[in-house]
Design brief:
By secondary structure, the chain is an alpha/beta fold. The protein has a single domain, classed as Rossmann fold (3-Layer(aba) Sandwich). It is built from ten helices and seven strands. Strands 3-2-1-4-5-7-6 form a seven-stranded mixed β-sheet. Strand 2, helix 4 and strand 3 form a beta-alpha-beta unit. Helix 1 crosses helix 4. The longest helix has 23 residues. The two termini are 34 Å apart.
Length: 270
């Protein structure tokens, strides 16, 4: 891996770590999407699981409690995020969680003796890998023969976001994701990252079976449109969530803020 690339990514998240939880707990859209991601993980049976990009450990803690007999592992590029997550693990007295610092390329070095039943990535940590094809190979190599990947990505073609930004006359941000490198969500800090189309993601993981895919925030405003979501209220957001559920049955699933993919090793799909 490129030390310079991942140093930039780590610096961004080290700076972001302090306010990460506060931003999440104040945002009902993020909370609902996260819970939907979790439900996808819970569809599967696993005796061990790996999270790539665990942040402050919110989901490590969650699955350690819901699956107390399961070995939970995590890997994250940020030493500050790892520190917060480790303190949370220690404070909870959890013995079935191990949180490592590293990138997806380090999995076979940090955890060489385990093949995982399931690996999950929430909220687009794979958008900040240097080489998606290499990351896909590393993830597949980390899996058990019938292992499962539950992966979410920041989507390249978020049509509603483009439309909203054009209405606001924010032309640069409207088309920022279409560039070869995206700068992340922050208007003041740069995160080296890339946005992918569903076709690019499927190509990177083409040696695995695609079980299902889904889009998020297709018509529903993305989590960072805080004023719009506040104006819509709980009732309006619930209605748009239901509409997005319908859109997921059509080609429109490809054009949300996030896309979720489930891939499985082997010839048999559970």
């Amino acid at each position: 891996m490129s030390n310079d690339f991942y140093k930039q990514v780590e610096l961004y998240y080290n700076t972001d770590a302090k306010d990460f939880d506060l931003r999440y707990w104040q945002n009902p859209v993020l909370q609902r999407i996260r819970q939907d991601f979790r439900e996808e993980v819970k569809r599967w049976k696993f005796s061990n699981v790996l999270e790539v990009g665990f942040g402050t450990g919110i989901d490590l803690i969650h699955f350690a409690k819901t699956h107390p007999n399961t070995q939970i592992f995590g890997i994250d590029i940020s030493v500050e995020m790892q520190g917060i997550a480790q303190k949370r693990i220690d404070d909870e007295g959890l013995k079935n969680v191990t949180a490592f610092k590293g990138s997806v390329e380090d999995i076979d070095v940090l955890i060489p003796d385990i093949k995982f039943d399931l690996v999950y990535v929430f909220f687009g940590a794979l958008n900040t890998v240097e080489d998606l094809q290499l990351a896909a190979q590393n993830l597949q190599n980390s899996l058990a023969p019938d292992g499962v990947l539950v992966l979410s990505f920041v989507n390249k073609y978020y049509l509603m976001g483009i439309f909203i930004e054009l209405l606001k006359l924010h032309f640069r941000s409207a088309f920022a994701r279409l560039k070869p490198e995206w700068g992340g969500y922050s208007p003041t800090k740069y995160l080296p990252s890339k946005c992918y189309t569903p076709a690019q993601i499927k190509s990177a993981f083409s040696s695995m079976n695609l079980v299902r895919n889904r889009g998020y925030s297709i018509l529903h405003p993305a989590w960072y449109y805080i004023r719009i979501n506040k104006y819509l209220g709980n009732k309006g957001r619930r209605m748009l969530w239901k509409i997005d559920t319908i859109f997921n049955k059509s080609f429109l699933w490809k054009y949300g803020e996030y896309s979720l993919f489930v891939f499985q090793n082997g010839n048999n799909i559970s």
